[in-house]
Amino acid sequence: MSQLRETDVHAETLRRGEQEGGHSCPPNGGLENLPSVGDVAQTELGRLPADWRVGRFDSLFDVQQGRQVSKKNRIGDNQRPFLRTKNVFWNRLDLSDLDEMHFSEADESRLALKPDDLLICEGGDIGRTAIWRGVISRCYYQNHLHRARIRASEAADAQFVLFWLWYAFEFGNLYFGRGNVTTIPNLSQSKLRELPLAIPSLAEQRKIAAVLGLVQRAIEQQERLIALTTELKKALLHKLFTEGLHGEPQKQTEVGPVPESWEQRPLEKAGEVVYGIQAAVASNLKPVGTMILTNKNITLDGKIILEKINYFELQTKRHHETVLQKGDLLFNWRSGSKEHVGKTAYFDLAGEFVHSSFILRIRPSDEVTGRYLFYYLNFLRESGFFLKKQTFSVNAKFNKSAINELPTYLPGEEERRDIVTALDAVGKKLDALQVKRGLLEDLFRTLLHQLMTAQIRVYNLDLPGLEIAQ
After folding, report:
1. What is the rounded distance in angstroms from the CA atom of residue 252 to the CA atom of residue 55?
2. CA 404 to chain centre
3. Domains delineated in the chain
4. What pLDDT does residue 307 have?
5. Dihedral of the CA atoms 299, 303, 308, 309 (nearest 10)?
6. SS3 for 68?
7. Is the pLDDT of residue 430 over 50?
8. Which residues are bridge partners to 53 per DSSP?
9. DSSP type of residue 168
């Protein structure tokens, strides 16, 4: 299928899932000689279609662990790359950082990988699985990874089994308690071999894998677009704040080159700078009082996140003076991570919020100046300015007096507005890409759950043009 409209599939998925038992099947549903889709059987994995079977993992796969990483095993002249658990993610391998150790000829013969081998994490995020695609030659794997190889190609589809494991470990919680729990939870070879798998017909496995793979590829495309747009935004920040828009000569300053005509003033002249509330708020998670933003609520790219929010009861005049207004800037002046000092958010949330002591509030004189300073301060952080200027003891910091005196370079009002317009446009594009990625991830989770529990069947999905390997 050349293109999948994810919203159409999502709607169809939900519609099918709402039908009785999730198992209605149209005449000529697309697969021949299947029992009625309403026929179900109770299994150790729950209620599944009667035409699915349940089998042990080792009935389909040969399982083998890799070579132990040790000082002794690193010695030798046949150094070869090998995969560790840090290289294995759900449905993808990161081959950018491979370790090496000595592998004898016998080791290489025993541990040679073949396309469609599954690599399954024994520890950490146990069960996390990727498929080996043969991208590089003579690459092996350590003993904290299991290699699972299909015994018979007509019995199982590797991509389907990967998606099944993803569902079972991450969403369905089907294998809870099956790992060996010592000081570190792990999935031993014997435990992996006895895991039960839901096994539809090979044709249905392949079609399930194709549908889920299609959504995964759409997610990956969004991630590539997000990465490219993020790099574009960084490049644009640098160009605009060093060259401006009019191609004029530059002057050297302590923040780097800037257009010659830009006016310098200390930041306190462009906006009021105020410390936040000095109080212990880390454990104050009950929704009593006013929401208080801390440095953990600001991301490196200047977003405000509210996944974990603290509360504070305002008692004094000083407390009430920290109530935020739309258009305020939140500057993280102190952090345990040096790279986080200087991250700046633009406050535009509804509701009453205050800010904690590790955040300086900057209240600009007008909206355009506020948006300009938001981008300017994030540019200074991106360019490493705050890393050079901060002090570091237990925490890295760039205190209020330093931010008051921070040299701020301002173009004329019209150029300032044009710079903000350009950067806002890129920011909106990036936000739209991230929203779409989130929708696709929701779609994937919905499809993964409903296909693996047979609340919908693949031949109930109207996906014209979808090509399935036979």
Report:
1. 70
2. 36
3. 1-52+200-228+413-470 (no CATH), 53-199 (3.90.220.20), 263-410 (3.90.220.20)
4. 86
5. 120
6. coil
7. yes
8. 199
9. I
